[in-house]
């Protein structure tokens, strides 16, 4: 009897300690009931193109090939000539959902979402998509719906491929990214002959979000050092170049489009993510277009001691790191 009592007391203490973790750490950081605020200052951009290459490591994008050529010539040109670059620092857990919430909603994910497999919103939250006039999204059915679900009205438009396409054993997951690029091109081509859609696109406060899952999927299946992973990065660079050209042509090169290219998280050498290793927390950030400084050449040393500037041959271009959130 004494042993049973001792066991029950011990079990109770451990249960209380376990539940206290959820009470202390799994509490939402959000405050509800606040009135949205806006500024009277005129924005430098009329529209935003946000491109997130899921699972892309910073070093995989920025490192040159052994022969000094570049796997991503378009983005490299942006970095060295017409945009601003840096490292976006994520934090644990390095998963797709909390990464996208940090990028698009501007807060660190309520970790209780892990109890729902990072699929559902444990609490409602606002996002830049919700505050836009219209947002069009293309990509994974695991990511896009969570931003449409919490939006007021019907101005967040999502276009996803079937969930069964996300095959982590696929030999060619880059087709997921090809699908996105093809859909975006078809969308803008159709707008030329659709006066209603064209008029909507020409309004301000519009966002175009491209979620590219192929790199992450290839990383899980083949590892980040594999040819599949690296070739997928090159495919994304080509696709981004084509989409940017199409968008600039559609809007008549009006100089009012801002572009952000980044990643939600990185990946370890063995194809996993979720923890806090630098390969998981360091993600690339390349920004250009309306309201963004062009590349700034520097001759003095920069305030970064991680050695990456030399590794990436970018000591001469000003680096601007940010926290992902």
Automatic annotation (TrEMBL):
<protein>
    <recommendedName>
        <fullName>GPI ethanolamine phosphate transferase 1</fullName>
        <ecNumber>2.-.-.-</ecNumber>
    </recommendedName>
</protein>
<dbReference type="Pfam" id="PF01663">
    <property type="entry name" value="Phosphodiest"/>
</dbReference>
<dbReference type="InterPro" id="IPR017850">
    <property type="entry name" value="Alkaline_phosphatase_core_sf"/>
</dbReference>
<keyword id="KW-0808">Transferase</keyword>
<comment type="similarity">
    <text>Belongs to the PIGG/PIGN/PIGO family. PIGN subfamily.</text>
</comment>
<dbReference type="InterPro" id="IPR007070">
    <property type="entry name" value="GPI_EtnP_transferase_1"/>
</dbReference>
<comment type="function">
    <text>Ethanolamine phosphate transferase involved in glycosylphosphatidylinositol-anchor biosynthesis. Transfers ethanolamine phosphate to the first alpha-1,4-linked mannose of the glycosylphosphatidylinositol precursor of GPI-anchor.</text>
</comment>
<comment type="pathway">
    <text>Glycolipid biosynthesis; glycosylphosphatidylinositol-anchor biosynthesis.</text>
</comment>
<keyword id="KW-0256">Endoplasmic reticulum</keyword>
<keyword id="KW-0337">GPI-anchor biosynthesis</keyword>
<dbReference type="InterPro" id="IPR037671">
    <property type="entry name" value="PIGN_N"/>
</dbReference>
<dbReference type="InterPro" id="IPR002591">
    <property type="entry name" value="Phosphodiest/P_Trfase"/>
</dbReference>
């Amino acid at each position: 009897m004494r042993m049973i009592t001792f066991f029950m007391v011990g079990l109770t203490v451990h249960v209380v300690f376990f539940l206290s973790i959820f009470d202390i750490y799994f509490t939402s950081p959000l405050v509800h009931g606040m009135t949205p605020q806006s500024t009277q200052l005129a924005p430098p951009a009329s529209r935003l193109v946000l491109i997130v290459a899921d699972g892309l490591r910073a070093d995989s994008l920025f490192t040159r090939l052994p022969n000094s050529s570049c796997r991503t010539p378009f983005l490299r040109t942006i970095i060295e000539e017409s945009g601003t670059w840096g490292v976006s620092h994520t934090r644990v857990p390095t998963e797709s959902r909390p990464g996208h919430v940090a990028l698009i909603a501007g807060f660190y994910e309520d970790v209780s979402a892990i109890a729902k497999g990072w699929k559902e919103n444990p609490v409602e939250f606002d996002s830049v998509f919700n505050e836009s006039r219209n947002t069009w999204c293309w990509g994974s059915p695991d990511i896009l719906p969570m931003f449409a679900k919490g939006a007021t009205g019907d101005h967040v438009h999502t276009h996803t491929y079937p969930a069964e396409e996300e095959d982590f054993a696929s030999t060619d997951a880059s087709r997921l990214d090809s699908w996105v690029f093809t859909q975006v091109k078809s969308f803008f081509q159709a707008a030329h002959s659709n006066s209603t859609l064209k008029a909507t696109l020409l309004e301000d406060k519009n966002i175009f979000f491209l979620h590219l899952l192929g790199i992450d999927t290839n990383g899980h299946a083949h590892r980040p050092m594999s040819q599949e992973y690296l070739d997928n990065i090159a495919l994304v660079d080509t696709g981004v170049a084509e989409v940017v050209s199409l968008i600039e042509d559609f809007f008549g090169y009006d100089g009012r489009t801002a572009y952000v290219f980044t990643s939600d998280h990185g990946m370890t050498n063995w194809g996993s993510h979720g923890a806090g290793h630098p390969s998981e927390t360091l993600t690339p950030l390349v920004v250009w277009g309306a309201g963004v400084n062009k590349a700034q050449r520097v001759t003095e040393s920069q305030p970064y001691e991680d050695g990456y500037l030399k590794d990436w041959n970018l000591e001469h271009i000003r680096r601007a790191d940010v926290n992902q959130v």
